[in-house]
Design goal:
Helices cover 48% and strands 12% of the residues. It has helices at residues 5-16, 22-39, 45-62, 67-83, 89-119, 135-148, 163-171, 186-189, 215-225, 294-308, and strands at 127-130, 152-156, 178-181, 195-198, 202-203, 209-212, 229-232, 274-277, 284-287, 290-292.
């Protein structure tokens, strides 16, 4: 299948993105499929569907740890396949663009709704700790600050990708007081905050949370300090197909951890970008449909899995 160079480059951008969260990249995946319709050179509706399926496969394999990318692509392609029967090529192209736009809007609306629910968990004068960049968590914190005016945020460095710097750069100009710490200090500082809020890249069938590396350690520290630990994500990140031990955690370049030449020969460097947090460490999961316990989410995922059988 001959995919245009521009589309391939856009897929590579998603694969190599070290800054944005899963919801943003899922919206970008929908945008890539929309752009692909404009660059398509196929001559029949059948060829168009085959081309879109191949682009979808490449997008899903680009970020295997991020459930929203796969979920968005699957939803888009399934909708097109179901609605395009009997359509000519131009009509299918227009349908694809329309469905992509609607999926993007749905995701944006979900973020707005989650910000409403998440803000209700934050009290006047709270200090919130967060780890690993999440646009949804950013929306919650900004809305909470606009409501209360005196919340503070403790931000971790957030792994070798250093996305904590992006969090501080985004929240600082809003006037929110920020304390920036190294990941190694999270256990020391977690007892100084009122609650922890993190995003998620996938909520697995067994309720385990896949998120930026270091999330598990923070959840353990929060449990020990008796600090509420909330996961903030839309239901697009729910995946009834995979359990936690089946997820590709996307290991990245060793040089982000340390330059190999600085270590003795033969030392192996590992740089996983994600880890897995068990549901028993989670106080609640905030979605566009409200706040749920981990047990309620697991029951919901089991129901979804049964429907897919």
């Amino acid at each position: 299948m001959d995919i245009s160079a521009e589309v391939i480059n856009l897929i590579d951008e998603i694969r190599n993105d070290r800054v944005h969260g899963a919801s943003y990249l899922a919206r970008q995946a929908a945008e890539v499929i929309k752009i692909a319709t404009e660059h398509s050179q196929v001559g029949t509706p059948e060829e168009f569907l085959v081309e879109q399926k191949e682009i979808g496969r490449r997008l899903m394999s680009a970020r295997p740890a991020m459930a929203p990318v796969s979920n968005v692509v699957s939803r888009l392609l399934n909708t097109i396949a179901a609605k395009s029967k009997g359509m000519d090529l131009e009509s299918i192209s227009k349908l694809t663009a329309s469905v992509a736009d609607e999926i993007i809007k749905d995701s944006q609306r979900a973020t707005v709704q989650i910000a409403q629910y998440g803000t209700q968990l934050i009290n006047d004068g709270d200090t919130i700790m967060t780890h690993s960049y999440s646009a949804t968590v950013m929306a919650v914190l900004k809305k909470a600050f606009s409501r209360h005016g005196n919340i503070e945020v403790t931000v971790t460095r957030s792994g070798s990708g250093r996305t904590g710097e992006i969090i501080a750069q985004e929240l600082g100009p809003c006037g929110i007081p920020i304390t920036f710490i190294d990941d190694a200090a999270m256990g020391l500082y977690v007892s100084t905050v009122n609650k922890v809020m993190v995003g998620a890249d996938r909520v697995c069938a067994d309720g385990k949370i896949v998120n930026g590396i270091g999330t598990y350690q923070l959840a353990l520290a929060s449990k020990q300090a008796n600090i509420p630990f909330y996961v903030v994500c839309d239901t697009l990140k729910f995946d009834p197909r995979l359990r936690g031990n089946e997820v590709d955690l996307e290991e990245k370049e060793p040089s982000e951890v340390v330059e190999p030449t600085r270590l003795p020969p033969g030392v192996r460097i590992r740089n996983p970008y994600f880890d897995i947090t068990p549901p028993e460490l989670v106080s609640g999961i905030v979605t566009e449909n409200g706040l749920f316990t981990a047990e309620e989410v697991i029951a919901y995922l089991k129901g979804q899995s049964a429907e897919q059988v």
